[in-house]
Amino acid sequence: MGLENVIAEALPEVLTTRLDSLINWARKSSLWPATFGLACCAIEMMNATTSRNDLARFGAEVFRASPRQADVMIVSGRVSRKMAPVLRRIYDQMPEPKWVISMGACATSGGVFDNYAIVQGVDKIVPVDVYIPGCPPRPEMLIHAVMMLQDKVMKESVRDRRDIPEEEAREAVVPGTLPVTDGSTARQNTLPESRPYTIASRHERRRSS
Amino acid sequence: MQEQPSVSETTPSPLVTALQHEHPEWIGEVIYAFGETTIIVPREHLVAACSFLKTWPEGHFNFLADICGADRGVEEEPRFEVNYHLFSTTKYHRVRLKVLLNEEDTHVPSVTGVWKTANWHERETFDMFGVIFDGHPDLRRILLPDDWQGHALRKDFPLRGYEPYSLK
Q1: pTM
Q2: Which residue, among B82, B166, B144, has the nearest Cα to A181 in the 3D structure?
Q3: With a cut of 0.90, is the ipTM above it?
Q4: How far is B80 from chain A (nearest CA, A)?
Q5: Residue B147 domain-assigned?
Q6: Would you state the pLDDT for residue A179?
Q7: Residue B93, in any domain of the structure
Q8: Please, which pLDDT band fits residue A131 given cuts at 50, 70 and 90?
Q9: Residue A65 and residue A32: Cα distance in Å, rounded?
């Protein structure tokens, strides 16, 4: 009926498609999670890649030790306040496009740990794409979350995510450069104006606007 | 492992008797409970008592098992206590030293010169209770983030913490 029919008749060996579909299909078919186990949920995350559950069937079994090679962060477990800047830094080190799965009750909401030491939901630090309930979730639930994420990836457009590294570099406050107490006295610290480890990433800013 | 010498709850252990004979000014009070001996030591004698107990042939407490703080409650006086759990790996006996502190003056001399392992234990006690160990080589927070406000295990610390860490 349209142009693609004309092409299909004239050049039968040529397949036409939308660029978004092609790129998203490539992206969703090889999601590489970052190796980032935080607590007991990490045991279930490891189990998801074993022969019994076999996350490789959905193309997401290559857990990379470097965030530079990963595009999915599976936050598997409770995030302590002290771990929060580290988690954010790993997230910032991952190249776009990147996605986050919040695995389990603790990562999603703090779980039973409603206290000073645990971040009440990892979405206060990084933007989360898929939440998994459970304590801990079974490996099947993680696989289901990966499949949901794949569906989500297919709905995106390449135009949505575009790196502007200079802009981010200008705004970024490097985590770990917080004021350090000298410890000789229990002096009160002057608090920074804003949360220092929350650097809005490119697509986070887009979502909030 | 050898059996620990049984300690009656009423009669003082020979160790405490010998110590009382040598340095009576170090011993504020002796508590026997559950077969354990606790000596309340005045703060100014703590380092002398610790280094003596370490090298004393009858005691030979060469192992500092733990240092822990305790908050007895906001209205209590003295409010804080610091407990030193000593163990001897040659004689297989234990003793607990206790230092009592008022809320206004939470300074304790450091025992890092006696046992090196006291370094991190004292940092943790400082981190959680705000007890300041005078003479500690590196008294920084060890568990909580560096820019934390307050001391988390004090009884008047709110469970969810202060801003901005409460992130509510």
Answers
A1: 0.73
A2: B144
A3: no
A4: 16
A5: no
A6: 42
A7: yes
A8: very high
A9: 10
